């Protein structure tokens, strides 16, 4: 069996502004003409889009449509090191081609978001988003779906934004939104760590401000803090 290496990306997820559990692109109206796919029957949305420069697309009688490929995530020390699943048996997935990818290079395949997640490293997801105005305290936003969070009112600007992942990592962007009515992207220079978070997040600013005193990692502590983190700040210190 011939094998080749290349790049895999995904479509239909948060970067596209889409819910990965809803049909899109190759699961709804892909170029292969399969139409709307039911994710409860084969191929269970394990599908991908093939580059128009790929040899199977260029030389095959049906431009690769219906072809099945085994995609395996490779562990290496390069740019994408640490992206594969820690379980060697969970690094491969079989997909069916249902669409083409006009912007992909010959060695590039675009997978449905849920399928892509099957073979890459377990990634934490955002569990809470909070916003704070100039004259207000931290307020939780409501998660409508996917990466969409909203609030029914707008605090006084400038606004601070606090994002919490379900693995305990937290980032805070201060004064990121300067005035009302602004839309679009707001660069923060902040980023979560990729891969499993094996160390406790920084405890500054005080986690009490964010209602994190009862978080699992705060209570568990580590080898240096067996009693837990922020005992005095959270009112648990017996000293």
List the helices and strands and how they pair.
Blueprint lengths: L6 E5 L35 E5 L3 H5 L8 E5 L19 E10 L6 E5 H5 L8 E7 L6 E2 L1 E4 L2 E3 L8 E7 L4 E8 L38 H5 L19
Parallel strand pairs: 1-5, 2-4
Antiparallel strand pairs: 2-5, 3-4, 6-7, 6-10, 8-9, 10-11
Any overview of this molecule?
There is one protein chain. Helix content is 6%, strand content 26%. It contains three helices and eleven strands; from the N terminus they run ββαβββαββββββα. It has helices spanning 55-59, 113-117, 216-220; strands at 7-11, 47-51, 68-72, 92-101, 108-112, 126-132, 139-140, 142-145, 148-150, 159-165, 170-177. Strand 10 (159-165) and strand 11 (170-177) form a beta hairpin. The longest helix is centred in the first third of the chain and has 5 residues, at 55-59. The model is unreliable at 195-211 (pLDDT under 50).
Largest sheet: 5 strands, mixed
| Backbone CA Rg | 22 Å
Task: Please trace the helix and strand order, writing H or E for each element.
Answer: EEHEEEHEEEEEEH
Cα shape: elongated
Structural class from helices and strands?
mainly beta
Helical content, roughly? Answer: under 10%
CATH architecture grouping of the largest domain: Beta Barrel
Strand order of the largest sheet: 1-5-2-4-3
